[in-house]
Design goal:
Largest sheet: 6 strands, mixed
Order of helices and strands: HHEHEEHEEHHEHEEEHEH
Strand order of the largest sheet: 5-4-3-6-7-10
Structural class: alpha/beta
CATH superfamily of the largest domain: von Willebrand factor, type A domain
Distance between the termini: 48 Å
Helix content: 40-55%
Strand content: 15-25%
C-alpha cells in the first residue's frame, strides 16, 4: 500500500509538471526529438510514376505483377529514463533532495513524451539494476513511472552508470532517447557512454547540490560518504580547506563536462537551488537552434 503522502505528492507533481509541459515545452520537445529516417508501412500495387527502386521483388514474383514497398516517416519514439537511486542522491541542502528533484524531472520528460505520442520506459539503478519498467504509452503508464521514481526503495547504495547503460542496450533494441538522470558520482563509464550514444540519443542530466561545491563555515562537522559509509570529521572554519574543497568540486565538474563534450553527449546541468525549468528551456532552445 502506497502511503497517502506519496499519493498526494504524485498528484501534485502530475498537476505541476503537466501544466509546465503544456505551457512551456509545447512544440519544443517535438521539434528536437523527431523520428529519424523512414520505416516500412505496407506494400501496394505499382502505379505509373513510382520509383522502380521501391519494387518488392518477392511480392511481385508471388503476385505476378509489380508491387512496391511503401515507407512512412518514423514518428513514434521511445524515451528511456535512467534514474540514479544511489545513496548520494538522497541528499539535499535546499528545498528538495536530489532524488526528489530527479523524480520531478522524470515527470516533465515523461509528460512531454506522451504528449508527442511516444513511449516511455524507466530504468532505476544503483550499483545494480533495481527496477525496469518497459516503455509504453498513456497517462496511466506515466503515473506508474512517476510512482516508481518517487516511492521505489533501492537495495544498493553505490552508483554504476556503465551497468545501467549495458542494461539499456540489452532491453532497447531500437534507437531511443535516453536521459541519464544522476549526480554522476562514478568513474569509468566514458567508453560505454560513447558507445551507447552512437546507438541511442543520450542526454546526461547532471544534478548538483550547492553543498557539494561550497562548504559553509559552521565549525567541526561529521561528513558521511553515503555510498561507502566512510565517516570523517571536518573543520569547516579552516578557510584553506573550504577553498580546496571548492576547487576539487569545480575540477570534477569541469572534467565531467569536458568528457561529455568529447563524446558528443548533450548535458542538462540541474542545481537543487535553482529552477530546473530554466535549464530545460535552455537545453530545448540550444538543441533546437543546432538542429535548425
Amino acid at each position: 500500500m502506497i502511503p497517502k503522502e506519496v499519493l498526494r505528492k504524485i498528484r501534485r507533481i502530475q498537476i505541476t509538471t503537466s501544466r509546465m509541459v503544456t505551457d512551456v515545452f509545447a512544440g519544443q520537445y517535438h521539434s528536437i526529438f523527431k523520428g529519424k529516417g523512414m520505416e516500412f508501412d505496407e506494400v501496394r500495387e505499382y502505379q505509373p510514376g513510382d520509383d522502380i527502386r521501391s519494387i518488392d521483388w518477392n511480392v511481385t514474383a508471388r503476385m505476378g505483377h509489380p508491387f512496391i514497398k511503401k515507407f512512412v516517416e518514423e514518428r513514434e519514439l521511445t524515451v528511456m529514463l535512467l534514474l540514479d537511486a544511489s545513496q548520494s542522491c538522497h541528499f539535499g541542502s535546499v528545498k528538495q533532495l536530489k532524488n526528489q528533484l530527479a523524480a520531478e524531472l522524470s515527470s516533465v520528460l515523461a509528460f512531454s513524451a506522451i504528449q508527442n505520442n511516444d513511449r516511455v520506459g524507466l530504468i532505476i539503478f544503483t550499483d545494480r539494476i533495481e527496477k525496469f519498467v518497459p516503455p509504453r504509452k498513456g497517462l496511466r503508464h506515466v503515473l506508474r513511472v512517476i510512482r516508481e521514481a518517487l516511492y521505489f526503495k533501492p537495495q544498493g547504495k553505490g552508483t554504476d552508470i556503465s551497468l545501467a547503460l549495458e542494461y539499456l542496450n540489452k532491453v532497447t533494441t531500437r534507437r531511443a532517447i535516453a536521459f541519464v538522470i544522476s549526480d554522476f558520482f562514478d568513474e569509468g563509464y566514458k567508453n560505454l557512454l560513447s558507445v551507447s550514444n552512437r546507438r541511442h540519443d543520450i542526454i546526461a542530466v547532471t544534478i548538483t547540490d550547492p553543498r557539494e561545491v561550497d562548504l559553509p563555515n559552521v565549525g567541526i562537522i561529521k561528513m558521511d560518504d553515503a555510498e561507502t559509509g566512510e565517516k570523517v570529521f571536518v573543520d569547516t572554519s579552516d578557510h584553506q580547506l573550504r577553498i580546496r574543497y571548492k576547487e576539487n568540486a569545480m575540477k570534477r565538474i569541469r572534467e565531467r563536462q569536458k568528457m561529455l563534450r568529447s563524446i558528443a553527449v548533450d548535458n542538462i546541468d540541474i542545481h537543487t537551488d535553482m529552477p530546473y525549468a530554466t535549464e530545460l528551456i535552455k537545453f530545448f532552445r540550444t538543441r533546437g537552434r543546432r538542429m535548425a
